[in-house]
TrEMBL record:
Homotetramer. This is Superoxide dismutase. The lineage of its organism: Eukaryota, Fungi, Dikarya, Ascomycota, Pezizomycotina. Its main location: mitochondrion. InterPro entries: Fe/Mn_Superoxide_Dismutase, Mn/Fe_SOD, Mn/Fe_SOD_BS, Mn/Fe_SOD_C, Mn/Fe_SOD_N, Mn/Fe_SOD_N_sf, SOD_C_sf. It is found in: Mitochondrion matrix. It comes from Immersiella caudata. Mn(2+) binds at H57, H105, D190, H194.
Amino acid sequence: MVNFGNLLQYLAVQSPQQILSGDQLNTTAMAAYTLPALPYAYDALEPHISAQIMELHHSKHHAAYVANLNNALQSHVVAVTSSDIASQIALQAAIKFNGGGHINHSLFWQNLAPASSEEAKSEAAPSLTAEIQKTWGSFDAFKKAFSTTLLGIQGSGWGWLVKDGSGLRIVTTKDQDPVVGGEIPIFGVDMWEHAYYLQYLNGKAAYVENIWNVINWKTAEERFLGTREDIFKTLSAAL
Ligand SMILES: [Fe+2]
């Protein structure tokens, strides 16, 4: 279950906008979220993820989450300003879905890298891989466990490697729910059909097998060594 307060905290960390309160609350003062540029070209993840998928996924799907989030937040400010609690409650689902979509995809683009790059080698994450080996016994055992979890997701959702107070865990989130609470997302994999269907059709297992070639282990290492605040500060700087 997503904690709505945490989601708003995420959005606040991500956004360069000022904190609005009291008389400052008005729609014209709201800064809009923007679609972050990809840190690589649309064809940079080929042959594992096609340029066509990347372009549609980023410029259409992610862009739609950003636009819908801005619309929902603007309506929410109007509802707050007019003390319309019913509308405020009605807008929460749209803020959660589109805010989560914006957060998840922003994290996802950053935790992918071209297969030929140094970042895509697990050696770029010495501390993280040592902890992975400690937790799952071997790197291959972790990959198998993560892949099995991804393939077990029913419907649309995400698989994540997260860090919490007790160590590393594999978790899933439904639809566009982001990782919340005390967990730090190390890397995530989009398991919505729009992430693979144009290239892999119903071959979901092949998509999962190939995603390992384009995980950005340098980013994963930085997230593992940092705090949740660090992650979203870095993300915010890239937006
Ligand atoms: Fe997606």
